[in-house]
Fold:
Amino acid sequence: MDSNEYAGSQYWESTGTMLTGRLAGQKSAVYARRFRRVLEFICVIAMLVGSSYLINGLMIQEEYHMAGLRTEIMSLERENDTDRMEVARLEAPARIEEIAEQDLGMVVPGKAVFGSADQTAHAQTVRD
Structure:
């Protein structure tokens, strides 16, 4: 190798445009490692973003489910209130007395005697 070829090869090696032999293999191994690290980094970021979207989607789905449950609870509470009012109406003493008098032919006594042989001693007026 003459001095021009030697000087040219040094020039090409120093600029990095022409690599031969062992140096080229080392450079490609370094680039392969860097590429793999960059690819791993991109995969980790993609997994983080993907899991973020997945979790966000699950949270939205649960919020819709909770809203449906709240609506159902409100409906059931209204139904319970209606049922409580109906029970109160049916258990009203005035209603029971009316049914007893009209449908069953019962009569409320004028006086009631409580535990005495003497009927006049403990007699009380039941109705005014």
User: Anything to note?
Assistant: The chain has a mean pLDDT of 81. The beta strands are 111-112, 124-125.
